[in-house]
Amino acid sequence: MTFDLRNVISEPDESIDAANARLYAAGFTDGLPIVPPTHARIDAMLRGRGASEHIAELAPLMASATREAIACCAVMAGCLPEYMPVLEAAVAAAGEPQFNLLGVQTTTGSAAVCIIVNGPVVERLGINYAGNALGPGVRANAALGRALALTLRNVGGAVPGELDMATLGQPGKYTFCFAENERENPWEPLHVTRGYTKEDSTITVFAAAGTMEVRDDCSSSADELLRTFALSMTASGSAGTAGMLTGGEALILLAPDHAAVIAKEKSRQEAQAALFETAQLPASVLSRQMQKHLESSGITEGTRLRVARSPDDILLMVVGGTGFKSAYIPSWGGGSRSVTKRIES
User: Fold this and answer.
1) To the nearest whole number, what is the mean pLDDT of the chain?
2) DSSP alpha helices (H): ranges in the chain?
3) Is 148 helix (H, G, I), strand (E, B) or coil?
4) Which of 2, 37, 87, 179, by CA, is between 20 and 30 Å from 252?
5) What's the Rg (C-alpha) of the chain?
């Protein structure tokens, strides 16, 4: 069913229960209760900005995500009006060709689109970057991630079992949004490494295949700690067809305590280089049938399988609160490049 706003918008006299039942039956919700999208709520979300303006073309339906359609999904997800510029930037980034939204939305894999926020907007909107940043409890994180997921589902058409063909899926497909802990980052923040200024507010979208906790409260040197991370990144069961263990990018969320240990001895670039050199496996560790399958791509028994195409494709961020527990987030193995965009006020 096409996301025609005439069939979605709730009348003022429609009860919350009736609106939820109607939109759930039409396939426009994620299974959780939504805020009924009335004209008044959508207008409040738009704040007088052009409702019909095209923000992005979203796969797999290649449908136009207008500002009004995005605002409708924002209402349903529980967003506040001030979240809209962040959400619009995320939708625009997901629609960029290099992100490969068609693949991300229709794969049998477990790709989820996560939003990473940087810059002054983080404090202004109260987006969580400290303890439990990837978990529940903060409206901005929960609503922004959910609004993007609803927009990609409703406008893009990635309805589970129809065009979203995920074998398992993952919880991140409900909502996946967090900010970088720039206060405790010993290096420059992520968006600065991608060509923006520290004063810019940005979002980065990343096609995440899941999350893996990395715990090491024993290693006191950068090399030993980075070795722990590198070993955690070598998930040989995810070997792709181009000598990759995942999709060619890797996201490391360093807890501040881990970042402090590494930064005493290494720059960000040195840490990336160390991970690139260490996080690899010989193709010979794969099953024989997988090795045979990869031969057509020129991969032999002695080929080294890496987690990224270059050290720069290992993205390092500082996220979280106290504790020596970080996370590795592999990118979707089908091929997607993360995209960063400035948030327009």
Assistant:
1) 95
2) 5-8, 16-25, 39-46, 67-77, 84-94, 101-106, 121-125, 139-154, 190-193, 222-233, 256-263, 268-278, 288-294
3) helix
4) 87
5) 21
What SS3 class is residue 176? coil
Over residues 214-221, the mean pLDDT reads 97
Quick check: 267 pLDDT over 90?
yes
Backbone angles phi, psi at 13, to 5 degrees: -90, 0
Residue 138: C-alpha distances to residues 142, 163, 176, 178 (Å): 6, 31, 12, 10
| Mean pLDDT on 175-203 | 98
Summarised one tens digit per residue, pLDDT across range 15-31 is: 999 999 999 999 999 99
> What is the reported pLDDT for 297?
79
What mean pLDDT do residues 176-183 have?
98
Burial grade of 155 (CB within 10 A; 0-12, 13-18, 19 or more)? buried
pLDDT at 144 over 90: yes
DSSP 287-318: -HHHHHHHGGGT--TTPEEESSSSGGGEEEEE
> What percent of the chain shows pLDDT beyond 70?
98
Q: What does the angle CA 313 – CA 314 – CA 316 come to, to the nearest 5 degrees?
A: 130
pLDDT at 237: 67
Q: Is the pTM of this model over 0.70?
A: yes
One-letter identity of residue 131: G
Q: Which of 189, 329, 339, 179 is nearest to 259 (CA)?
A: 189
3-state secondary structure of 71: helix
Pairing relationship of beta strands 280-282 and 250-254 according to DSSP bridges:
unpaired
Taking the CB of residue 260, how many other CB atoms lie within 10 A of it? 13
